[in-house]
Amino acid sequence: MLTLPDLPYAATALDPHISERTLEFHHGKHHATYVTNANNMIKDTPLADASLEDIIAAAAGDADKAGLFNNAAQIWNHTFFWNSLSPSGGGQPGGDLGKRIDADFGSYDKFREAFVTAATTQFGSGWAWLVEDGGKLAVTKTANAATPLTAGQKPLLTIDVWEHAYYLDYQNRRPDFINAYLDNLVNWEFAESNL
Length: 195
Ligand code: MN
Description:
The protein is built from 8 helices and 3 strands; from the N terminus they run H-H-H-H-H-E-E-E-H-H-H. By secondary structure, it is mainly alpha-helical. Residues 26, 30, 78, 160, 162, 164-165 line the site of manganese (II) ion.
């Protein structure tokens, strides 16, 4: 039995960059529906009491479990996304993570360019990520529910670029949402905690 985690802040906390209305729909409807769907699919199966991570691993690459993978991975991705945001976020990372970004991308600006490009060019629904891959930081993007978890990468941060993540606040202006995320919301402390 999977459960919908609470948001780690009030639904008004990210306004105006992400409105209360967006968070109410995105967490209270979209994220909640993935939980309901996944629970319906694992009910009375050997995965009924499995952890979310074990369900994702069991369903990944199994065509018969594509629906379960999509819903379970979306639960994980969304919880990770809420934690990637902070009411006091945004700007450049310091500390060890800042040094790692300078070392692996060349500079914060180079990281930012790569992240904005990935998030902007993910065609249709999906996600952009900062990951650690083979000991190096990298930017990647995934389609639909796909997650770096099943690609042997360690996720550090994500942004949801499904239209439901930004359409109420930004309509078609996905780049404005991506820049608002980087300037005002990105939670570098969470990213560093994942290293
Ligand atoms: Mn979403």
